[in-house]
Specification:
Blueprint (H helix, E strand, L loop, with lengths): L1 H9 L3 H13 L3 H16 L4 H11 L8 H18 L5 H4 L3 H17 L12 H12 L4
Helix pairs in contact: 2-3, 2-7, 3-5, 3-8, 4-5, 7-8
């Protein structure tokens, strides 16, 4: 319920929009597909929201208080990556998604992600081509 309230007030962005096609085409649970994408999408987005990611970094690691925003923002991304490792979040390859099948549907996945409207809410709004590249990057992403 709290997540629904948050979505109603703030909407969702790139991770969520890219996650939907993974679930629809490859039957990956939505939470897992979001987690698969989150670190790479944060890396992609970071330059457009360093100040906001720095706040998250300082909440996660209070010892970063007083450090520059770039360092604190990078720490937030690193901590999310570590969380994915700790939770054994698979990438698309280790989930069992066939790479040749993925390549055949990348264009559709990117179109569907954009059509969801969610990527337009991202601090760094991607193009169709950038979403395709992110899916390719995430296929065997190493947290």
């Amino acid at each position: 319920m709290q997540a629904g309230i948050a979505f109603s007030n703030a909407s969702v962005c790139l991770v969520h929009g890219m996650s939907r096609p993974i679930g629809a085409l490859f039957h990956v649970p939505h939470g897992v597909s979001n987690a698969m994408l989150l670190p790479a999408v944060l890396e992609y987005t970071l330059e457009a929201c360093i100040d906001r990611m720095a706040v998250i970094g300082r909440v996660i690691k209070p010892e970063l208080e007083g450090q520059d925003d770039q360092k604190a923002a990078q720490a937030a991304v690193q901590e999310i990556k570590q969380l994915c490792r700790d939770l054994n979040i698979p990438n698309m390859k280790t989930w069992g998604i066939d790479e040749s099948r993925l390549r055949k549907v990348l264009d559709k996945m990117a179109r569907d992600a954009l059509a969801s409207g969610s990527p337009a809410n991202n601090p760094r709004v991607p193009t169709h081509e950038e979403i395709v590249k992110l899916y390719e990057y995430c296929y065997d992403y190493d947290y």
